[in-house]
Amino acid sequence: MRRFILIAAACLMPMLAWAQKSLPGIEVKDIDGNKVNAQSIMDDGVPVILSFWYTTCKPCLQELGAINDAYVDWAEEAEFKVVAVSTDDSRSSAKVKPMVNGRGWVDFTILLDENGDLKRAMNVQTQPTVFILDREGNVVYTHTGYTPGSEEELFDQILKLQ
């Protein structure tokens, strides 16, 4: 039993430590290819839904689609923004802009993390991974994977930050 507790504590400590972190100042590109500092997404001073995804990830596309469908209703109740970070590499990142436009994700800020620097800095292991950032850029909630309806928990977390 003691060994189990030690192993569980060792596994949970990195997750608990990460919960206190904030958005790193990693350089990425915007959807038009301009270099930007990732921390600039916090310039509006509003909470952020930060989603890591890639173009061939079906659960990623489902989750972002569900967020997009609910965005108009959510925006009436809370002030926040959605930032979708594509982790497609430089060979496949050309597909991102047409996909974003085709899916109507016009309210999202799209960033390209072609080298995976932001993904590594945020310790993203699986996609989709979504973070909720408070007004100062601190991570207050993390979710990995997607099941239909789980986007509602994201909105509940945003409401707590209002």
Structure explained in plain terms:
By secondary structure, the protein is an alpha/beta fold. It has helices at residues 2-18, 58-77, 96-103, 117-121, 151-160, and strands at 27-30, 35-37, 48-53, 81-86, 108-112, 129-133, 139-144. A hairpin with a 5-residue loop joins strand 6 (129-133) and strand 7 (139-144). The chain contains five helices and seven strands; from the N terminus they run αβββαβαβαββα. It has a single domain (2-160), classed as 3-Layer(aba) Sandwich (Glutaredoxin), CATH 3.40.30.10. The protein has a seven-stranded mixed beta sheet.
Briefly characterize the structure.
By secondary structure, the protein is of the alpha/beta class. It has helices at 2-18, 58-77, 96-103, 117-121, 151-160; strands spanning 27-30, 35-37, 48-53, 81-86, 108-112, 129-133, 139-144. Helices cover 37% and strands 22% of the residues.
Give the SSE map.
Blueprint: H1 2-18, E1 27-30, E2 35-37, E3 48-53, H2 58-77, E4 81-86, H3 96-103, E5 108-112, H4 117-121, E6 129-133, E7 139-144, H5 151-160
Could you list some keywords that capture this structure?
globular; alpha/beta; Glutaredoxin; 162 residues; single chain; 7 strands; 5 helices; seven-stranded mixed beta sheet
